[in-house]
Amino acid sequence: MSGLIRRTRQEAERRERDLLSPAATRSENTRGRTLPEESDPFRTAFERDRDRILHSKAFRRLKHKTQVFINPDGDHFVTRLTHTLQVTQIGRALAVTIGLNEPLTEAICLGHDVGHSPFGHIGEEALTPYVTGEWHHAAQSVRVFEVLEPLNLTWEVRDGIRAHSWKVEPPPSTPEGMVCRFADRIAYLTHDVDDAVRAGVIRYGDLPPEAIRAFGEPGSEWIGSMIEAVATESLLVGEVSMDDAHLEAMNVLRDFMFARVYLRPDVDDQRAEAIRVIHHLVDHYRDHPDEVPDSYRHHGADPVTAAIDYVSGMTDPFAVRDYERLTER
């Protein structure tokens, strides 16, 4: 007799009904997809979305996109892909601990950064002059999956991706989306500190004492402490949250990282060069829309939007090579 059993989608949905927290999002109650589809016999709607994102081209390109340090000299610096995997692991740990929908959390976390431009947040700064308001990678991530590489994802996954950043309003409509918000911040604060120390930009002794008192020693202890702080407060108040004391310590650490790492004056030349590369590329493809590949050319998009779609999807090394090709003409 086989030691294996076949799990159907209906069985998975039943387990969600019986085992998840009352506040959790059930896949059988999804608001659905833009285009109706037949249900998968084995996977829930959110499991299906997770798999689609994982196999997408936009997800694969994250391996060559900057997290913080542009073209770092070393194999152990975080890339946008390894950041995404760390966000997903933290998100799953939180979701399991407080009884939320793990596949939904995982899908949101895997897809949250696929719209990021080359050169990290410097790329966002470079693209903003071409749009009304602010160009933001969260909106572009949704556009990737809705327009450029349409995956027909569920509403809940798209909503979580849309609002994974703390600056985006309204906030996520699901607790799983809120988990991604916290997981993203926990991941980038902890691994960006390690990268900054590795690069010789700061020392562990420079870190704010508030962060050490709140979370312990940097590294895995920080991650565990931050996850525990979110889980403990969430279970206490009945929604995904962090208590004021730990949240304040996290905000102090974030301010420190912006002042000492992200916006430090010694990278001004590198920042200016990255902006120059992106501006040149956008200007070129705006003026030569026929050179934008068909896979990035959405019917009805104006030349500026088409150029931004193409350039924002580039990896760092591809953007540099393309810039060098164009400027050598």
What share of the residues lie within helices?
A: 55-70%
The helix tally amounts to 15
Beginning-to-end CA distance, first to last residue? 69 Å
Residue share in β-strands? under 5%
- Shape-level CATH architecture of the domain at 44-265: Orthogonal Bundle
Radius of gyration: 21 Å
- Uncertain runs: none
The CATH topology name of the domain at 44-265 reads Hypothetical protein af1432
Largest sheet: none
- CATH superfamily label of the domain at 44-265: Hypothetical protein af1432
Shape: globular
Topology as H/E string?
Answer: HHHHHHHHHHHHHHH
Q: What is the mean pLDDT?
A: 93
What would CATH call the class of the domain at 44-265?
A: Mainly Alpha
Explain the overall architecture.
- The chain has helices spanning 9-19, 45-54, 57-61, 80-97, 102-111, 120-127, 137-148, 155-162, 175-198, 209-215, 220-237, 244-262, 268-287, 303-312, 316-327.
- By secondary structure, the chain is mainly α.
- The chain has a domain at 44-265: Hypothetical protein af1432, CATH 1.10.3210.10.
- The longest helix has 24 residues, at 175-198.
- The protein is globular.
